[in-house]
Specification:
The protein is of the alpha/beta class and 221 residues long. It has seven helices and ten strands. It has one domain: 3-Layer(aba) Sandwich (Rossmann fold).
């Protein structure tokens, strides 16, 4: 489902050149749940952003579902992301002025769907994460765990084949983190969603199919 070949990422300023990723090659199968671990600054989020087509590698090739993405223009990349990939972030990235249902509908605004279809899909996504009774709430009225559930619902509302999760349990206590992890495991198990998760939590990582470790931008396991 995801193939990275000899990925390098270099950040340059006028005086400094930083190698964020060094010749990382990775194949992630359809339906796999992969976790990525490593110390802060080792390139985990950079790698996830390249998988999610939010950032371009300095060198190397990225294929998503056999599609070479390196030559797609910005509009094509945006359409491809919207169809194939859902994102979950550590800090939720919800819009405080929008109700829960409207937050979840957001990815569907970029598709050819009616308001009725958007509402139905968002309602179904919220039911999957156990928040059917919170559709008219605002993010400020929710706990951290509930906000992350909304973020998951938003990620899955368009029924993407891939979910990329950057520290999805990082801001939560252990009990709530376990609940969020169980939702991700269920999505992977029941719907065959391919999931890549960046985490600092060894306990969470051990629940996934495979663990990749990075150190100073290189894959060490």
């Amino acid at each position: 489902m995801i193939r990275l070949q000899n990925i390098e990422k270099v950040y340059r300023t006028n005086t400094v050149e930083t190698l964020a990723l060094n010749k990382v090659s990775l194949d992630i199968a359809k339906g796999e749940f992969l976790s990525i671990m490593g110390p802060s600054g080792c390139g985990k989020s950079t790698l996830l952003n390249i998988m999610g087509l939010l950032d371009e590698p300095s060198k190397g090739d990225v294929k998503i579902d056999e599609q070479t993405t390196i030559n797609l223009n910005d509009k094509q990349l945006a359409q491809f992301r919207n169809k194939k990939i859902g994102f979950i972030f550590q800090s939720y990235h919800l819009i405080n002025d929008l109700q829960v249902l409207d937050n979840v509908e957001l990815p569907l605004l970029y598709r050819d769907s009616t308001a009725k279809e958007r509402k139905q899909l968002a309602t179904e996504a919220l039911a999957k994460v156990g928040l059917s009774n919170r559709v008219k709430h605002f993010p400020s009225q929710l706990s951290g765990g509930q906000k992350q559930r909304v973020a998951i619902a938003r990620a899955i509302v368009g029924r993407p084949e891939i979910i990329l999760a950057d520290e999805p349990t990082g801001n939560l206590d252990s009990a709530m983190g376990n609940e969020i992890m169980e939702i991700l495991l269920q999505l992977n198990r029941d719907e065959g969603t391919t999931i890549v998760m960046v985490t600092h939590d060894e306990h969470m990582a051990q629940k996934t199919h495979r663990l990749v470790r990075l150190f100073d931008g290189s894959q060490v396991q």
